[in-house]
TrEMBL record:
This is Erythritol ABC transporter membrane protein. It is found in: Cell membrane. One of its GO terms (molecular function) is transmembrane transporter activity. One of its GO terms (cellular component) is plasma membrane. InterPro entries: ABC_transp_permease. The chain crosses the membrane at residues 24-43, 55-74, 109-130, 136-155, 176-205, 236-254, 290-308.
Amino acid sequence: MTAVPATKDAQGSSILLTFLQARTYVALLLVFGYFAIMAPNFLSLANTVIVAKHAALTAFLAIGMTFVIITGGIDLSVGSTVGLTAMVSGWLILHGIDPGLGWSIQFNTVEIALLVMCVGIFVGWINGILITKLNVAPFIATLGTLYIARGAALLSSGGRTFPNLAGNAEYGSDTFPLIGAGTFLGLPVLIWMLIVVGLIAAYIAKRTPLGRHIYAVGGNERGAALSGVKVDRVKLFVYMFSGFCAALVGLIIASQLQAAHPATGETFELNAIAAAVLGGTSLSGGRGKISGTIVGAFVISILADGLVMMGVSSFWQTVIKGLVIVAAVVIDQAQSKLQARVALQQEAATGR
């Protein structure tokens, strides 16, 4: 008598859980369909390229943020790291490095990119050391480096913009603008970069021991440590990888604009967190997918660009973005509770 309702309840819970797990793709279809109808010229080729570029920048940050959140942490410093690395790019192009001997060291585009990546990784390393060795809470540690990195960006130019970053053919840096504005096989270079970074991150997450360790640390840190996982090394890696992704964004923005401003990247961390959570990454750690995060980045970018095209006030855009973040967290909590419920129902069914 009671087995039939229980079975129906289990089936209903499983269907609802499947819907919640696919929420990112549902949200993508909804926002895309809405703006395709309501926003003029939304489906034009030029706007599609712009949206894709904006989504790629958010996706880079969100990919790094996904690894951090899966371990149960948070990285609030990524926006400031974007600004700092953009300024480093500008400094290297305009001034090089002056050792104080009456001459300076100049760099080509590849060398500039590598140095900028090193700066981002170093910021991530600082975050990782503060968290793993000094036992500072991730929120506080990365909040501190947020201010440090932003302050360093401001000090590098006295708060002024580094303009005219077209590079110098004599030093081999004249190809710098191609990083953000170049195309290859008809697609922007940064889209190809996103494909490469996304595939590498997905491979790490799904196919390597490091990926399994990242999920293990987020799922049960103490249990992971007892099973032999080097928890500190895993955390150090995810924060360094997040710093690398932020540096990549700083480099791309400086290349796109051919200018660098110390305020670049402000509030970018919010977009990254929103994209990761909307993509199914749990703020409690232990769950998340790179593919979902990338789709979440496209949802955030389509929403932002669509609202601009419809003439919605920037103030309302901020409110809507906040509502999206809150809704994503609420749905994530609902998914966690429903997963636990479905697991209990399955155990009960198996027991019978």
